[in-house]
Amino acid sequence: MSFVSFRDVSKIYKTGDVVIRAVDHIDFDIEKGEFCVIVGPSGAGKTTVLNMLGGMDSCTEGVIEVDGRRVSDMNAKGLTAYRRNDIGFVFQFYNLVGNLTALENVELASQICKDPLDAMTVLQEVGLGERTNNFPAQLSGGEQQRVAIARALAKNPKLLLCDEPTGALDYVTGKQILRLLQNTCREKGVTVVVITHNSAIAPMADRVIRIKNGRASEIVINEHPADVSDIEW
Amino acid sequence: MKALDKDFLREVKNTRSRFLSILVLAALAVAFLSGLRSTSPDMKNTLDAYMDENEFMDVQVLSSLGVTDDDVRAMLERDEIVSGEGVYQLDAHALGGGNDVVVKLWSMPKEINRISVKKGAWPSSPQECLVDKKLISDLGVEIGDSISIVLEEGDDDEDDAPKLTRKDFVISGVAASPYYISVERGTSTIGTGSVGAFIYLDESAFDMDYYGAAFFTVKGAKELTAFSDEYDDLIDSVIDGLEDFAKERESIRYDEIVGKANDKLDDAQSELDDAKEEADEELGKAERELADARKELADARRELADAVTELEDARKELDDGWKELADAKQELADSIADAEKEIADAEKTLADALIELQDGEKEYEDGVRELDSGSLELDEGRRQLREGRAQLEAVKAQLDAFAPTAAQMEQGKLAIAAGIAQAEQGRAGYEAALAVATDPAIKMQIGYAIAGIDQQINGLNAQLAEIDSGLAQYYDGLAEYELGAAQLDKAADRIKSGERSLASGEKQLRDARKELDDGWKEYNDGLEELEDARRTLAEETEKAEKEIADAEKELIDGEKEYADGVTEYQDGEKEYTDGVREYLDGEKEYEDAKAEADEKIADAEEKIADAREKLGKIDECSWYVLSRDSNPGYLGFGQDADRIGRLAAVFPLLFFLVAALVCLTTMTRMVEDERTQIGALKALGYSRLAISKKYLAYGALPALIGGGLGLAIGYWLFPTVIFTAYQIMYEVPSIQIRSYPALSAFAVTASVACISLASLWGCFSSLAEVPAQLMRPRAPAAGKRVFLEYIKPLWSRMGFFKKLTARNLFRYKKRFWMTIIGIGGCTALIIAGFGLRSSLLATMDRQYGDIFRYDAMLSLYGDPDEAERAKIEDYIASSGLVADSMQIDVSSVSCETEKYKVGGILQVCEGSDISRFAELREYDPHQGGAKIELDDSGIIIGEKLSELLGVGPGDTFVIDRDGRYRVQVSAVNENYLGHYMYMTPAYYEYIFGEEYEPGSYLLKLADGSKESCDRLFEGFMKLDGAGAATRIADTKDTYIHSMERVDIAVVIIIISAAALAIVVLYNLSNINITEREREIATIKVLGFFDGEVSAYIYRENVILTIMGIALGLVMGHWLHVYLVRSVEIELMMFGRDTDPMSYVWAALLTVLFSVIVNVMAHFKMKKIDMAASLKSAE
Q: How far apart are the first and last CA of chain A?
């Protein structure tokens, strides 16, 4: 049994008479500790998949299981608890709370979950030991994204979900963030799922899931994932 | 349709709630502003229409000496006066239904101040009248009942003649008068000093030679609105213009009055003289009567003495009587014995007489027998005589029978002789004739006649011979007869002598007989007499015995009479002593009467002298030409309208401000939300104007619609509701709602402008930036450390979320203030509303609960004398219903300083008494002010009066009460309703220089129940001198009722404020959520449960709400104080302290609203789509 499994999962949006199949009978698995990249063009249904995986959205059909638990059957409250204890999110636009310092942003997450990591330690780990008392506005994009990652990691999640984490960052910073994510995966054994439209990132992943028109068009297992520094785009 | 227009419509559609909230805010603000602002002019216009319709006076003329017909006519001749009339007016008591109310009597108005009949009908006869509805309720009578009017004798009224032609009137209906639109009925010169009700009588009911007032309308005034400056200016100028005219009329009237008064004085003088004379006469009469009484007493004394003598005489007489009676009894016995003896003698005599009589009888019978034989002899002789005589008689009769024949024969002899002579003469004639006769026939005939005559002579001769033989026989008879007769006569004589002796015997016998008869008769008489004597004796004895018995009875009666006489005498003596006492009393009375009369005369003389002096001092007649402001109803109504106007001046602005503030926030937020879109549009090349048009329209459209709606609601709701409440206090027709273009324009423009400008401001600040910048997410507001962080010990101890909340609060300063002010404003409005309400009610509770501690008040009526007062006091003390009572004098006066002039109620009583019946204390609502003692140092006045007059302790002001008196304020006390003043009798006498005479009682009941109060009052009704009795609880109820109506205005304010609060809170919460949607989504993603998410936001809301409420409490207090002062009426001080419950209610309501709004927000937050919110760039 895989750590994450999507079985025949569909997501259908109905707006009036228009039926949009954002995800159409998708099937894939992700093993524990893998660095997985979901790649595909805009509108392919990547984010929908991630949202369903992260418990931010529920599927219309099919079965989603994470670590042996059926996420697809959970109610709103169950999903919230799932997000709270099992999932870490990193967004393209960081989504830090502007009124909280870096440390406090991390604490915002760590204070509510069962088995948090020390916020300060996590910040030091992401290389922001010096900037803990800065407000997001005082931080650069990369730094903000690090805070976001630290916030996600501090919860000690089973799954770290990243939605275009480099989308708003420049090449170098983006690479740094990717490295951080890869290291986290390698060193901490956290299962990381990254969504991107940038195929260039795919080589660094243990598993690459290509999505096209709401379906997994190709699933590739990299026996030898490339190092971040080897990747260029 | 252009793309931008579509965008606008969709925007509206998609943000309905925001659009609607702006619309509602605009509607509320405009409704409140237009509604409250239009109320005052609506009220004034309504009254103006009512006044115009009824030809309400523009000016009224009063004169200290009355207004005359001439005055009215003279006024009407003036150009500026359109119409006018004089009316009679009197103060009087109306009695009916067992009650007594002081009333103002008016003659029925004709043209000016027209009245209307509210119930019942117009009077159909002069006996009918129209009355005040207050009279109906105060007297407890119905239409159709009859009432009596009693005038109080005016003391300095020169006119003693009755001023009314009749006393009793039937109520035909209830009238409403423009002159009396308020409950105020004015002051009076009688009773307690205030008029309770009005009555309209037919003009003919008055018998007065001057009017009480004259009312006029002024040219051009009708066209102007009442209370307006133009109107006031016109009337002022008219009144100024009348100044000289008034002077002229004054002097005319003065001269007239003085002349009249002089005449009257002279009359009074002569009347006095008459009275004096009369008094003298009467006293003289009384004196004479006393003298008579004295004389009578002396007579009585004498009579009494006589009575004593009489009684003694009577005693003696009685004793004599008894003695006489005894004698009489003895005498009677003696006389009976004598009589019996006499009778016995008489019986014996009678027996002797009987024997004698019987002898006499025998003798008599012998005599009779003798006589009878003599008589027989005599009878024989007589028979012989009688026979002889009868023979003689027969001869005689023959003779006598032949006597005439003899006479005739004698005569015949003569006649025959004559005949022979004649026949021989005839024959000689014939023989001569024969000798001459030749004719044979004739000779033959003569021959025959001579032969016939010869024959005749032969016959005659024969006859003559016969006669002579008859005669000779006759003469022989005669001679015989003469012889027989003589013999007879001799026999007759013999008989006659026999007869004579017989007759004497007979006579003797007759005498004897007579003697015998007499003897018999005497004997019989004697017998009879004896019988009589016996009977008489018996009768007399009986009679005498009866007489004696009578006499004895009489004596016994006499004794009784005597005893009565003694009693009578004693009574008489008593009567006499009484008479003496009476006389002495009479004498004393006389002395008293004399003294009194002297005094009275002296008084009257003095009065006349005074009157003369007064006459000399008669004030110049003064004319008062007064405007409508002299009418308390009109003035009060205007003041009330102004008060609402003042309320409308600030209150709606605050309302408006809050609404505008919230709209501003909303619009600013909206523009900021659409920043990127603005950027995009700008980048596309749309002009600033085109872009900003959407936001302008988005603001202006709901403002316009809401404004229109607000106008419609406001113009109708507020004036109607508030005016309806005022209709409780004023008798005026229903309000005429109007719209005011300027006000409408102002309100709508203001709301549109506020909101549009707010959106423009937001727009322009955004539009100033370059598109590139706009399209990028706005640099997030820098997180800042708040000052709390520098207080390390505190900050480090704060929980994470608290820190977060603190930072959030201080970070969004604009939102912070907007929210706090918004919430605070609403809270303040609610507090002001509740505060106003509690102030109104507290006024009553404090006045009648804390300050007045008595249950009832009794006014005396008609100046009762000592005895009547004592009776009333007895009743109060003995009824068992009254726990405590005190005497007090209550009168209406006018208080004046240079600053103000106002009517008040002067209460005069002992300080030690009043402290039990009223709580006199300084005004300090929070701690309850220090107690004030009423002493002789001055007058205590109420807080409000003190404010109005601008005087405090130690200051002086003037009391106008039949003269001006300056009094000193000793203290100011807490008082809410009416202007009560307190002073001691000593100070009273010091100030007014007249004797204190309490006219009322304050009563505390043993148990305050209405039943026992009613019982007590019923008792008063039966007492002379007891007038109106009032139960304080009733008065309080009446006021509370009217206050409850006014409550409606306050309830409107509360509801409006509450509505505003809800909209504001909802809007603010909405903005808060929209603004922080991303943050909320983030924490949701982080795994915050719904409750935790809400709590995260609520924490701030709660703090903001609390701070808002805190600010609101402070603002509310000031707003309330301001409002209370601006709506206070002259007669009342409202509770100026805000009732703690007002704060509690306001806070609770605000909390409730924010809970409701937060619950709504909770669901809104739940609906936030994390994925969608987080995906987009900011």
A: 35
